[in-house]
Amino acid sequence: MSESSTASRPTLEAVAARAGVSRATASRVVNGGDGVREPLVERVRRAVEELGYVPNQAARSLVTRRHDAVAVVIAEPETRVFADPFFALQLRGISKELTAHDSQLVLLLTEGRDDHARVGRYLAGGHVDGALVFSLHLDDPLPELIHGAGVPTVFGGRPGWGDGTRSAASPVYVDSDNRGGAREAVRHLAALGRTRIAHITGALDQTSAVDRLDGFRDVMVDADPRLIAEGDFTPAGGERAMRQLLDGCPDLDGVFAANDLMASGALRVLRERGLRVPDDVALIGFDDMLPVAEQTDPSLTTVRQDIEEMGRLMARLLLRGLSAGAATVGSAGAGSQEGLVGAPSSVVLPTTLVRRASA
Amino acid sequence: MSESSTASRPTLEAVAARAGVSRATASRVVNGGDGVREPLVERVRRAVEELGYVPNQAARSLVTRRHDAVAVVIAEPETRVFADPFFALQLRGISKELTAHDSQLVLLLTEGRDDHARVGRYLAGGHVDGALVFSLHLDDPLPELIHGAGVPTVFGGRPGWGDGTRSAASPVYVDSDNRGGAREAVRHLAALGRTRIAHITGALDQTSAVDRLDGFRDVMVDADPRLIAEGDFTPAGGERAMRQLLDGCPDLDGVFAANDLMASGALRVLRERGLRVPDDVALIGFDDMLPVAEQTDPSLTTVRQDIEEMGRLMARLLLRGLSAGAATVGSAGAGSQEGLVGAPSSVVLPTTLVRRASA
Q: What's the short name of a Pfam family annotated to this entry (chains A, B) (predicted)?
């Protein structure tokens, strides 16, 4: 362990002694309270500086209820978090925004869903001002745990509940126009003259995947069920789904994959089967994940969503909600419903079709 | 924000009322204190369960000083953390070990060194039981801040200080035998008959890079200074260093790069200059980072260190130290010097040369 020691860490008592004030006065100054005369405030501040005093946040947070820290929870195993560049991009946006507000990004990693109860305990434990939660799956206990923890939260992607078992208040989220983007992709394939258009879905326990499937069905009304194969947003899942589609419908001439990673997997299978892209099969992804979408051969036509901007917006909505709450209800704001007063509502960002070589 | 509310979160008062005991008694039971008669303990426990009470960790931690959470600090910008698979591997080992002990992995991400003061504040704030810190650079204020925070810490890689300005107590760290591994790599190149052997160093403000350079010099005593080029552990840094080496010494016939990512960059430059590997130039990396080392063409001979195991060991040493401390000094153990009593000392893991096609 480090050479840390309690002796090296000055106490509030030491600060009070050096400033020549009572412990209560020193505490009020350190915790930003009012009612202390300016000369005393000045003396305490000088003592804090001279001693290098760091207030114990656990104690201070009982008074101020602010930690200057925001938790990020990605409801995926840590292996997935580091394998899928989507999460790195979203974290980049979040990190930039939190850093600009001097709030610490606290990423809570897990091995899997079994660990979500522990995440709930940490969130309930008074260590953060709020939480940013993304990649939720429908049967995940996390939203319930977050609800129980009483932490202001902004979700990345529209949460999937709506069955009336939870509070009537709506969750705040940032999402892309998944359904509209999917429609545009499929319409583009149709405009290219493709008639046997298939869809590789994402994990269907996530609203983003369901919405993209709905967008596909909006255009391909009464699509042959063999033209829809369930993937899981990973390259391996894209390969599996592409094999299944080709086995069921060897005459397909267009594929819309619900993300770029699955499209890259599908591309490998198409090449393996000797099919030319886009001549035999036109292919469209979703995300515009760089460098993936640019480095495939042929490069990928895809539905662009601004993932980094989504992260930035999530953080911005949360911070805005926290400070709006603080302004309204004072120091008891964060961590309670009143902390949400004045919080902005959800945001759905538009998508754009980016044309490259694959369709 | 979520539909969270204070109303939905039961208080300790509610637990006490339901159990028919005083608040003080309820508090003692919830915080694991002694001196409460068993029937009362039972009644409080039942009330906790029935109400779904979650103790406020900030309050509880003032009593118990345990958070069941460990911070991980990687002293690199978050962009680097997600771009270099080294960190994902080390985090994987840490995550597995912490999860096995139901301790929450709290990854503190930053945009850069300017944010380390904030990390220090979070560590000092009583949110975690200890910290795992890796990828330290020599002039980083982080060790000083961690020292000030008084958090038990295990370092990944030997910290670079030793100038007497810090406490006499030695930091606990997990490292690989960087110098020995480097010696083995360079000896292997020499045994292949190579006489003009160059070295691409890592970032020389990190001890791992300095140790590997020392290992190189152990074998190549009085090496031509033009045969040493400073890199930074990134593929782009490897490319730059390789260009510099070839410009200064076009006749070089062997290269030891201080990690696989730089070796992959060097390989691209060698190919670009029309040099065959290993025929014209034999090349060795460090890490055995998969899939990088296997997927280069030719595949990479490299010095293997078990990165995931290093992460696991770091977590194990920290947890062992914490529980040894707790056993010795009771609940005041974590966060204080006494928490370190019985803590094991540092570990240096052996390395192995893995022979593939490049040397």
A: LacI
Instruction: Tell if the CB–CB gap between A118 and B68 is shorter than 8 Å.
Output: yes
Closest Cα in chain A, distance from residue B193 (Å): 39
Q: Which CATH superfamily is domain B69-175+309-348 in?
A: Response regulator (3.40.50.2300)
Q: Which residues contact B17 (CB under 8 A, 6 or more apart)?
A: none
Architecture in CATH of B178-305: 3-Layer(aba) Sandwich (3.40)
Q: Does the distance separating the beta carbons of B107 and A1 come in below 8 Å?
A: no
Residue B70: phi and psi, rounded to 5, are -130, 130
Q: Which residues of A touch B330 (CB under 8 A)?
A: none
Both tokens of A54, joined, read 């760091």
Question: Taking CB atoms and an 8 Å limit, are A127 and B78 in contact across chains?
Answer: no
Distance from the Cα of A177 to chain B's closest Cα (Å) equals 20
Mind telling me how many Å the CA of B354 is from chain A's nearest CA?
Answer: 25
Closest by Cβ to A2, choosing from B68, B106, B152: B152
pLDDT band at A28 (very low <50, low <70, confident <90, very high): confident
Q: What is the pLDDT of residues B250-275, one digit of tens each?
A: 999 999 999 999 999 999 999 999 99
DSSP reduced 3-state for B222: coil
pLDDT, residue B344, reads 62
Please give the ipTM for the structure prediction: 0.76
A146, B9: Cβ pair inside 8 Å? Answer: no
| Residues in contact with A59: Cβ distance below 8 Å, sequence separation at least 6, in sequence order | B62, B126
- Please name the fold of domain A12-55: 434 Repressor (Amino-terminal Domain) (1.10.260)
- The superfamily (CATH) of domain A69-175+309-349 is Response regulator (3.40.50.2300)
pLDDT digits (tens, 9 = 90+) for A2-26: 444 344 567 788 888 889 998 888 8
